[in-house]
Amino acid sequence: MQIEETTIQAPSAEPTRADIIKAVIEEIRPNLKRDGGDCELIGIEGSRVMVKLTGACVFCKLSSATLEGIQARLVEKLGELVRLIPVAGGAAARH
Known about the structure:
The protein is α+β, with helices and mostly antiparallel strands. The chain has two helices and three strands; from the N terminus they run αββαβ. A three-stranded mixed β-sheet has the order 1-2-3. A hairpin with a 2-residue loop joins strand 1 and strand 2. It is globular, with a radius of gyration of 18 Å. The model is unreliable at 90-95 (pLDDT under 50).
């Protein structure tokens, strides 16, 4: 009788880069929703993270400060420089 060795690979406990980016955006969304706005991840291309602000965030005078805060949080969590880019539509490919 031959015994086969099988290796069961446990799911990686390390979150992926995309998971971290999604988590940061999900973390900030309740605050935006409280003020009638929202932020949606549109796509990730290298060091560029495209997001779409909606609702009250679209015309808010503080939207640039909101984007800067999200970008700073992404840099902190990822440990690398990323650029948050606001987009008007959802045409970019999702990742």
